[in-house]
Design a protein that fits this description.
The structure holds 2 protein chains of 2 kinds. Chain A has a single domain (29-63, 98-316), classed as MetI-like fold. Chain A contains 14 helices and no strands. Chain A is mainly alpha-helical. Chain A has helices at residues 2-32, 34-56, 66-71, 82-87, 100-136, 138-153, 156-167, 171-174, 179-205, 209-216, 221-232, 234-257, 269-276, 285-312. Chain B has 11 helices and no strands. The longest helix of chain B has 39 residues, at 216-254. By secondary structure, chain B is mainly alpha-helical. Classes of the chains: A mainly alpha, B mainly alpha. Chain A binds chain B through residues 149-150, 153-155, 157-159, 161-163, 165-167, 169, 246, 250, 253-254, 257-260, 273, 277, 280-281, 284, 287-288, 291, 294-295, 298-299, 302-303, 318-320, and chain B through 15, 18-19, 22-23, 26-27, 29-32, 136-137, 139-142, 144-145, 148-149, 151-152, 155-156, 163, 191, 195, 198, 241, 245, 248-249, 252-253, 264, 267-268, 270, 275, 279, 282-283, 286-287.
Chain lengths: 320, 307
């Protein structure tokens, strides 16, 4: 018995060392991908801005600087104009005197929380659903496939919009300035991809020899799934999650742009555009800066996701 | 083939049924209705309005009424514009939306395919980097961001085109919304074309054609492009679907008087019957375009046989 245990723990160590190597190899490949590294740096910078933004912001996002506005004749302060420099609003203000730079920082916080929380929702629903369907098959699998059919048939954005309208006036819809509803609505429409992915991984992995070996030494089903199968599907899931982020950020921005989603006085980049569009002829900075912010975030996450896919699955490289 | 098409057409019915059920449930959960005005109405009036629209009945009865009317082509009254029916709103907006969508679709095909071919022929050289760069930016730029850049450049700075398109009769109001809507599809089509072209470059029949001494121009046109375009057709379904559902942002941004603009206005104005009808229309178009592309795909590629 004792001898058995020793060989087993030894075997564990070998597996552990090898899997660390896989990750190191993947990171090595990622580091060589210049675009992906640019993406990674921007993503880290955006998260840093989201966290320290409120302390960095020269003004609070909802504060209206009446003096600057009155001096400017009740018009938005243009960036780098004399009044902007005097009053400290370097990127200008909107027509109520709210500092654009501070609002952009607050928007970064919203976009980055969308990036994380939506994917957490996706993981908490998608991974268990996919694991159950892939491991047990049968009725649960059928159910998952039917749900998939329906969600694929229902255009994502329309469902997100409907959910947002239906619950926007409830307590749930008002929580965290409406952000909770945004997280859940986007998460509910995007978990299916991850569930299908995990299901597919489990279906192919459960036929592998190491599963049979684990079974032979008496490992319980539950542990086989959580300790052997799921860790082996982490790579594709990470890629899917990263590539899902731009979609989620875009969905939030679109909601905010059409005036649902995050509620005033907080403003995401999409709502800044919504408010600024009126001034597009005279004060383009009000829409241009948030637009640049959205495009930068989306590009960065796309570069990083593409790079991760190439790094974790070299076979796929160049196929897309 | 015929049975496949029939089955796919019949499949649209349960899909639409589920979409309508979800939409109706969500809309009936939503507070507010035709009586919701700035000023609160006396309860008696609210009751009368509810009776007029059948909203005093239980939800399942309302749903059955709605479905029965829907099948007969009656989309109900608008909650917001008391003198207009939802049918009027859709009939007014649909031609404009289709017009805009078709222009953007043509642009996606006419620019996207040459761009992809151009990229593949100069693989790993400057044209490839240029075209790939354009398509990466095109894919990750939201349509309204592109719209902002276009308006700031071409109407505010240069003054070439108007920033609003509410007078849809003038052709110069078409330019900016069409480009803004076509940005993402152009990039997608280019990406797929490039990948498909690179795929066929490695095929035996291309090498054979070259070794027979056919001029490389003819190999590209007659052998490579014709085969490469087959998989590109599959992306056209999702693109048509995007043009349908993606157009509401662009229509709203430029004030194009289509159903997309009506949809966004309805969201702001809690006009639930309009939201129901437009959602159904969008879901139907998405299902229909996917079907059309699957059938078209089988038609142009004899190797594909559905059973």
């Amino acid at each position: 018995m004792a001898a058995d245990a020793r060989t087993l723990s030894g075997a564990d160590k070998v597996v552990a060392r090898r899997s660390a190597g896989v990750w190191r190899d993947a990171f090595g490949r990622l580091r060589k991908n210049r675009l992906a590294m640019v993406g990674l740096v921007i993503v880290i910078a955006l998260f840093a801005l989201a966290v320290i933004g409120p302390t960095l912001a020269p003004w609070q996002y909802q504060v209206q600087d009446q003096d600057a506005i009155i001096e400017n004749g009740f018009r938005p302060v243009k960036p780098f104009s004399d009044i902007a420099v005097q009053s400290g609003h370097f990127l200008g203000t909107d027509e109520l005197g709210r500092d654009l730079f501070s609002r952009l920082l607050d928007g970064a916080q919203i976009s980055m929380s969308v990036a994380i929380v939506v994917q957490l929702v996706v993981l908490t629903i998608g991974v268990p659903m996919g694991a159950f369907a892939g491991w047990f098959g049968g009725r649960i699998d059928n159910l998952l496939m039917r749900i998939t059919d329906i969600t694929y048939a229902f255009p994502d954005l329309l469902l997100i919009i409907l959910l947002s309208i239906a619950f926007r006036e409830t307590v749930f819809g008002r929580a965290f300035s409406g952000l909770l509803l945004v997280f859940v609505a986007i998460g509910l429409t995007s978990w299916v991809t991850v569930a299908r992915l995990v299901r597919g991984q489990l279906l192919s992995l459960k036929e592998m020899e190491f599963v049979e070996a684990a079974r032979a030494i008496g490992v319980r089903d539950r542990s086989i799934v959580t300790k052997h199968l799921l860790p082996n599907s982490v790579g594709p899931v990470i890629v899917a999650i990263t590539l899902g982020v731009p979609g989620a950020i875009l969905a939030e921005a679109t909601l905010a742009y059409i005036g649902i989603g995050v509620q005033a006085p907080r403003a995401s980049w999409g709502s800044l555009i919504n408010e600024g569009v009126r001034w597009i002829r005279s004060d383009t900075h009000l829409v241009l800066f948030p637009a640049i912010a959205i495009a930068t975030a989306l590009l960065a996450f796309t570069f990083l996701g593409d790079g991760l896919r190439d790094a974790l699955d070299p076979k796929l490289k160049g196929k897309q | 083939m015929a049975s496949f098409v029939t089955r796919r057409i019949l499949w649209i019915i349960p899909v639409l049924f589920v979409v309508s059920l979800i939409t109706f449930t969500l809309m009936s959960l939503t507070p507010g209705g035709p009586w919701a005005r700035e000023k609160e109405l006396p309860p008696q009036v609210v009751k009368q309005i509810q009776a007029k629209y059948g909203l005093d009945k239980p939800v399942h009865e309302q749903y059955i009424t709605w479905v029965t009317n829907f099948i007969q082509g009656d989309l109900g009254p608008s909650y917001r514009y008391t003198n207009r029916s939802v049918n009027d709103i859709i009939e007014d907006g649909l031609p404009t939306t289709i017009h805009l969508g078709l222009m953007a679709f043509s642009l996606a095909v006419l620019i996207g395919i040459p761009l992809g071919i151009f990229a593949a022929l100069g693989h790993n050289k400057l044209p490839d980097y240029l075209a790939t760069g354009i398509s990466v930016i095109g894919i990750s730029t939201p349509s309204f961001v592109l719209a902002i850049v276009l308006v700031v450049t071409f109407s505010v700075a240069l003054g070439w085109f108007p920033a609003t398109s509410n007078r849809w009769g003038d052709w110069n109001t078409w330019v900016l919304p069409t480009i803004a809507l076509a940005g993402y599809p152009i990039a997608q089509v280019a990406r797929y074309t490039r990948a498909a072209m690179l795929e066929v470059t490695r095929k035996d029949y291309v090498r054979t054609a070259h070794s027979k001494g056919i001029r490389s121009r003819a190999v590209v046109v007659r052998h490579m492009i014709r085969n490469a375009l087959i998989p590109v057709v599959t992306i056209l379904g999702p693109i048509l679907a995007f043009l349908v559902t993606g157009s509401f942002i662009i229509e709203n941004f430029f004030g194009v008087p289509g159903i997309g603009d009506a949809y966004v206005t309805a969201i702001g104005g809690r006009d639930y019957t309009v939201i129901m009808a437009t959602t159904m229309l969008y879901a139907f178009s998405v299902a229909f375009f996917n079907l059309a592309v699957d059938v078209g795909y089988a038609y142009i590629d004899p190797r594909i046989r559905y059973s």
